[in-house]
Structures are given as C-alpha cells and as structure tokens.
Amino acid sequence: MKVYLDDERATPEGWTRAFWPDEVVRWLETGQVTHLSLDHDLGDDERGTGYDVVLWLEEAVAVRGFQPPITTVHSANTAARLRMEAGIRSIERLARER
User: Fold this and answer.
1) pLDDT value at position 97?
2) Which residues contact 43 (CB under 8 A, 6 or more apart)?
3) How many domains does the chain have?
C-alpha cells in the first residue's frame, strides 16, 4: 500500500490519500504500507503535520523495531522539508542497525 499525506494536491494514481497524521499512523500500524509520501503543512497544525508522522516512525523503529516503509517528502515548505528529510535519514539508520 502506498500512502500519500496531503491536504491539497491531487493524489497520484495508485496511492491511498490521507489528510491527517493519525490516519497515516493507523495504516502504518497494519504493516501494509510499503511507500509513504509526506506533506508538512496540512491546514490545521492542531491536528498535526507530516513531521508528526516522521516522529512516530522514528520512535516506532527505535523502540519497537518497526520496519519503516520507503518514505519521501513532497512538501513545498523548505525548512520543514529539510527537518523531515533529516528525520527520515535517522529512521533509515536506525532500521539498518536493527
């Protein structure tokens, strides 16, 4: 399953759309997500951002040995993109060490 987190962009063909981080986490917990593409700004920071998914993944990999999907960022927010990509690199390192 490929999951695309975004509030505005069109969902690419073959991907499942998510609007909020909690939706993504529910799908991740099924173990069926193979690819994940994240936006940062989702229109309501109270409900979360794409970075919240990165934080969840990092903890799940470090604490539970969760196997992360291939994760990319498609956010136009430059600062957030850099922070998310740094988190993804950390997740990938943690996953390789397990």
Assistant:
1) 86
2) 7, 8
3) 1
The secondary structure element, H or E, covering residue 18 is: strand 16-18
**Residue 69, pLDDT score:** 98
Tell me the average pLDDT of the chain.
96
Quick check: pTM over 0.90? Answer: yes
Report how far residue 80's alpha carbon sits from residue 30's, in angstroms, rounded to the nearest whole number: 27
CATH number of the domain residue 48 falls in: 3.40.50
- Show the domain range for 60: 2-97
User: Do the Cβ atoms of 37 and 5 come closer than 8 Å?
Assistant: yes
Both structure tokens of 61: 């990999």
